[in-house]
Amino acid sequence: METIKNILCYGDSNTWGFVPGSINFATFYMERYARHIRWTGLLQEYLGNKYHIIESGLNARTTNINTPNLFPDRNGKTYLAPCLYSHAPLDLVILFLGANDLKIEFNRGAKEVATGLAELIDIIQSSTYGPNMKQAPAILLVSYPIPVSENSYKDINNEFIFRGAINKAKEFSMYFSDLAEQKKCHFWDAAPHIQLSDIDGIHFDEKAHQTFAELLCKKVQEIII
């Protein structure tokens, strides 16, 4: 009997499937794309039944920063180890984070985001939650697409929360690829291929989800035969 390959997709709102511009800040109601539209659901469809795609997307998730004022429990570092254990054994972990670290409240650039990702990689690589429960799973680090707008969302002080994010995100590819090489991870730069929604500048629309899934499918197949 052929073993199914388990893949954990660990990300933020673009993994969760947030519909661009759909949040109501008075009620915090928001819309989520259906699974067959989200890139995770499409990736499952494209890869077929020899693979099992596990979604772990969370709106506002950071790499390793606490955000207690508005969104509690969004620190990607604190949840990662139990998440790995819950879904083990895993053949591959796809790390798709970094955009939320660029919010002005955190005062981070691409280099600091890469440092946060390094801590997540260390957690994964020090685990024994790989395919035989004796070694770590492989890691695919994905570099975030570049925002097309910084003027969509404001904080309680009426400041744009992603001010300066465009120029900072342009350095993601350089720092993330260096990190992947240093940590011996797989790497894919999504920025040249994905156009974020014009509605809010930072989220995937349906076309982006489809393009992302199609290209990511090819990358996954290169890693896991």
Task: Break the fold down into its secondary structure elements and pairings.
Layout: E1 5-11, H1 13-16, H2 39-47, E2 51-57, H3 76-87, E3 92-96, H4 110-125, E4 138-143, H5 165-169, H6 172-183, E5 186-189, H7 206-223
Parallel strand pairs: 1-2, 1-3, 3-4, 4-5
Helix pairs in contact: 2-7, 3-4, 4-6
How would you describe this structure to a colleague?
It is built from seven helices and five strands. Helices cover 34% and strands 13% of the residues. The chain has one domain (5-223): Rossmann fold (3-Layer(aba) Sandwich). α4 (110-125) links the parallel β3 (92-96) and β4. The mean pLDDT is 95. It has a five-stranded parallel sheet, with helices on both faces. The chain has helices spanning 13-16, 39-47, 76-87, 110-125, 165-169, 172-183, 206-223, and strands at residues 5-11, 51-57, 92-96, 138-143, 186-189. With 225 residues, the chain is an alpha/beta fold.
Notable characteristics:
alpha/beta; single chain; 225 residues; five-stranded parallel beta sheet; 5 strands; Rossmann fold
